[in-house]
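Pipeline run #58 for the internal structure catalog. This entry was flagged by the ingest filter as a single-chain record with no existing model, so it goes straight to prediction. Upstream metadata was stripped on purpose; only the residue string is passed forward. Reviewer on rotation: M.T. Logging verbosity set to normal.
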Amino acid sequence: MSRRYGGSSWLAAQPDTSNSPSTSLNNRILDQEREMIEAALAEARGRVSGNSGAAAKLGVPASTLESKIKTLGIRKAKFKTG
């Protein structure tokens, strides 16, 4: 049985959190995470996996780092050197 409060769903009653402190914290965390990943990629010359790859430098599985790189929209190619 579904309930309605005040004629609208409970989702509509959720406060707008776009300018909340938690949103600001989340953005700061994402920015710091991006900086750490980009620094590791620069040090590893764009390489993610392997003993000298960015994943090893960050202490995370390569698949996790690849997922984070994709989510954050980081272009690995800009860290690769010829």
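catalog note: The chain has a mean pLDDT of 85.
catalog note: The longest helix spans residues 21-43.
status: ready for reviewer M.T.
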